[in-house]
Design a protein that fits this description.
This protein is mainly beta and 248 residues long. Helices cover 0% and strands 36% of the residues.
């Protein structure tokens, strides 16, 4: 396996096994992404280079990010858009801001501040716009409606279930962190809670375990059933009147 290229400790070039892979030095560099291109900055202008440090194509940008799904988000002036791997604009329109493509969908912000998703050719993936929209993970994205409620949508913009939350995270292995009026917990793809307890904070599960903070400030490791596997830090404040503290 070819050793991975990484950004140098001072952020001015790229290395392989700690050895610079070219002689050039820049003001800032970002990571290489397929097909072997990286954005680099010098004198406030961003360009793309190949692994030998040579320019990948002519032209520069006010801001540039890595390639995902063969497209990279860039900015010229107030115009955000995506480019192809040869530096050409991927479509004709521009936006107030662009995210990266994930699963052939990217989040963009319109001039009125609303969020939408676009496909790889720049067309809108669905007709709805939102107060906020996140990247797609496992075929679903978090969106925020005009009333502030949050839910997951599929690639066509349809809600994947009828559940609505005060806050919500992306899916990881079919489970997402969510918050209601009582606190944070985890839900499945149907929007159903995995357990009844509530916390002041939770992280995604990693092999059936997650870090959580109870409503009274205890730092915990919990299982998929919400039960405490291990307490790392004792409670730091009196429990709130509502909800359960999960102290077992």
């Amino acid at each position: 396996m070819t050793p991975r290229v990484s950004v140098s400790a001072d952020g001015t070039h790229h290395c392989r096994n700690g050895v610079p892979i070219y002689s050039e030095r820049f003001d800032e560099v970002l990571s290489f992404h397929e097909p072997g291109l990286a954005p680099v900055r010098r004198d406030r202008r961003w360009r793309y280079i190949r692994e030998d440090g040579a320019p990948a194509f002519p032209g520069s940008f006010d801001q540039a990010y890595g390639f995902y799904d063969g497209r990279a988000a860039v900015r010229r002036g107030q115009r955000w858009f995506h480019i192809c791997t040869d530096g050409r604009a991927a479509y004709r329109r521009s936006f107030a801001w662009c995210g990266n493509f994930q699963g052939d969908r990217a989040v963009v912000t319109l001039r009125n501040g609303t969020y939408r998703h676009i496909t790889i050719d720049g067309t809108f993936a669905c007709s709805e716009s939102y107060g906020y929209a996140g990247d797609y993970h496992e075929g679903a994205a978090v969106v925020v409606g005009s009333d502030g409620a949050m839910w997951h949508i599929d690639l066509d913009g349809r809600p994947i279930n009828s559940a609505r939350f005060e806050d919500l995270g992306p899916f990881h292995k079919g489970v997402a962190p969510a918050r209601d009026a009582s606190g944070w917990f985890h839900v499945d793809r149907e929007g159903r809670p995995l357990y009844s307890d509530r916390f002041s904070a939770v992280e995604p599960f990693y092999n059936g375990r997650a870090r959580a903070v109870s409503l009274d400030g205890a730092l915990l490791i919990i299982g998929a059933d919400g039960k405490t596997i291990r307490a790392i830090r004792r409670p730091s404040r009196p429990p709130k009147a509502r909800g359960r503290t999960n102290r077992r």
